[in-house]
Each structure stands twice: as structure tokens, then as C-alpha cells.
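Me: I hope this is not a bother. Any chance you could explain this protein sequence and its C-alpha cells? It all follows right here:
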Amino acid sequence: MSDTNSMRNKASSVKRLRDVHAEATRTALVGAALKRFVAHGYAGTSLDDIATDVGTSKGAIYHHFKDKRALFGAVYELLSQELIESIASAIVLPSASVEAALRAFVVHAGEARYVRVLFLDGPSALGSQECRAIDMRHSLGLITQLIHLHAPAALIKETGLDILARLLLSTLVEAAQIVAVSQDTAATSERVLAVMGRVVHGLLQDDSVTP
């Protein structure tokens, strides 16, 4: 009986080590792919390049990812989550204003890694629908919190938090894409923020309060 338990424990230990190694390889592949996609773009990056950077074979990539598109999707997911975490750390809830969150979004979204992967290559490599689904997974919670804190109760009751959050997120993504393709990102960012500020101010003002 003890021999059987010993064999089971050894098998379990081997499986854990194998799982740890597999996860480490996957993490290394995503990290190397991120650097390549940011530096050379989706079209300019090959799986051979990524495999060489990690010191493994292209077969190892196919063990973890169906193809280059799937690997790019993992990088997109990572950066989408990272962007929202950066924004969340830059503002303080519940005291942060929506305007402060908008500025944090535009500023952080203008970083090279996000511009290239999320706003330039993402829609063409993955398709707008898949990109939007990923963005929703990571962004909707923070945006919903902000709207819940600042939107008039009557507006939330009439429209619903989900609709308001989704519409605001769509506007934010479009704003980031405008900045991403501009020649003068600083000036464009300020113009975009001015427009977004007006939109949000109009959306969140409480019509039930008379002057």
C-alpha cells in the first residue's frame, strides 16, 4: 500500500514539475512575443524569431498556441489588463473624478506598447469584435465603478449601468485610436480630452437639479 502511495506521490510531483515548466515556457513565449510585436509589429514578427528569442523551437510555440494570431491574442490580453491596472493605480477611488480617469486613460494608452498592439495592430490581427470583447473583460469593471460613483441616480435607473459603461468604453477606445494614429500625439490628446470632457460632463450632469 505504501509503495502504491509512493508511486502516486512521485507521479503527482512529476506532473506538477511538468506543469510548472509548461507555464514558465508559455510565460517566456508571451514575453518574447510582446517585445517583438511592439518593436516590429504583427506583420514584421515571425514565430521563428520568437522561438529563437526564447531559445526553443517553433514546435514549442505550437504546443501552447494554435498559431501566431493566438499568440498575439495572448499578448493583447496581457496588455489590455496591464493598461487598466495602470489606470486604476493612477487614480484613487472613490474620490477620483471621471475626468481624471479619462486623462489617465489617454496618457497611459499613448505609451508605445499599447499603441502598437492594442490600437494599431489589434483590430487588423484579431478583428474589432474580439478586441472589444477582451477590452470589455478588463475595462468594464473600472468604468462601471466610475459611473456608479458619479452618474445621477435617475440616469442609471433609466439607462442602466451596463449600457452607460459600454458606450463610454467604446468612446474611450475610439479616442485612443485617434491619438495612436496622429502625428502630434500631445496636441491630439489634449483635443480629444477636451471633447471627452464635454461628453462626460453632459452625460453625468444631474438634470433633476435646477439652478
In short: The first helix runs from residue 2 to 40.
